[in-house]
Amino acid sequence: MEKQLARHARVDVADVLRGLAVMGIIVLHSIEHFNFYSYPDEAGRSALLAFTDRAVWDGMFFLFGGKAYAVFALLFGFSYFIQYDNQRLRGKDFRLRFCWRLFLLFLFGNLNASFFTGEVLVLYSLVGFVLPLLCRLPDRWLLIVACVLLIQPLPLYYTLRACFDPSFVTPVLPSDDLWAATFEAQGHASFLEMLRVNLWEGQLASLAWAWDNGRVFQTAALFLLGFLIGKRGLFLEENLKVWNKVLCGSLVAFFPLYGLGNLLPDFISNSSVLTPLSLIVSSLYKFAFMLLLVSAVLMAYYRTNLQKRLRLIIPYGRMSLTCYITQSMAGSLLFYHWGFSLHDDLGITASFVTGILLFLLQFACCRWWMARHTHGPLEYLWKRATWLCVK
């Protein structure tokens, strides 16, 4: 295993996956106007534009919605294993250092949240403690815990309770006023006022949304699965047969789950049953589709002539933290009131094109930067700060 860890193939394909995930995230955020759902008046819009808007929205969310983020989370756990095991091989325990690293990530997340309320780094910095707490469990138990988390235990409890207690109402965190405050700031506030609202009301709203939509349990599960992938060396080419089975299994699982998710509203009228059950089913089919995407990329990387082209995105993947935060800054500048306020000018199709252009600009900058440096700017700061006071 120590020799396997020294190989670059696994790290490179992880960076390919990370780069593709961040690319999907920037496109989704762009068509959402970075959580500012304000668009031009639909009156007078041509039939063709109405069609492309719907096609872009449905297509991008089907392909990346809940999946790009899941790949990102999976690779977070994978990266922890690499760092943890590298220190283990040196006879050191990385767990406390990783807790410090999570605190640094919390600071980066708040920088990102200053511009964009839908960011995930703060959530990662909080849920990430599951990794040092559980990483020394046997693989079997890590897998069991991950599977329990994947089935959304709290929504499952809500579903069962609502089935036996007709008076039960599924609880949700009160966040409507918080979202209203962020929407008002995005549309009318000055830059400093937007920062203030985003860092308080925006963060509380985002964390409430993550809790109500099962992201907390799913993120913890993906972290543990990513750790197991690293521990078992599953991103190595010799383990590609595992991903062939994963691809087949995810295909078999996705379509029935996706169909079931669409059919549930036709058969269940009790919202206290429908809401948590739909959450469980959608979480599972998005997870299945994410596995399908990961498997497809791994097979394309190792088994086709696309490897050379896929490797082009490696610099972008290695600068994922820098790209993730700078895309929020750029999106806020483009769509919010304090900047160019283009939310009233760019519809979904135009915003999709804008997202592609932002990606291409970041992609070019990353290739230029990584040709001259070993780390991205924020990645370098994170690494140096992680090892403060270590000789």
List descriptors.
single chain; 391 residues; mainly alpha; 75% helix; disordered N terminus
Largest sheet: none
Shape: globular
Total helical segments: 19
User: What's the total number of strands?
Assistant: 0
List the domain count as a whole number: 1
Give, in order, the helices and strands: HHHHHHHHHHHHHHHHHHH
Q: What is the percentage of strand-forming residues?
A: under 5%
The end-to-end distance, rounded to whole angstroms, is 27 Å
Helical fraction: over 70%
Mean pLDDT: 94
What does this structure look like?
With about 400 residues, the chain is an all-alpha fold. The protein has one domain. Helices cover about 75% and strands about 0% of the residues.
SSE layout and pairing:
Blueprint: H1 2-5, H2 8-31, H3 47-64, H4 68-89, H5 95-113, H6 121-127, H7 130-134, H8 139-150, H9 153-164, H10 176-188, H11 191-212, H12 215-231, H13 240-267, H14 271-303, H15 307-310, H16 314-318, H17 320-335, H18 348-370, H19 377-386
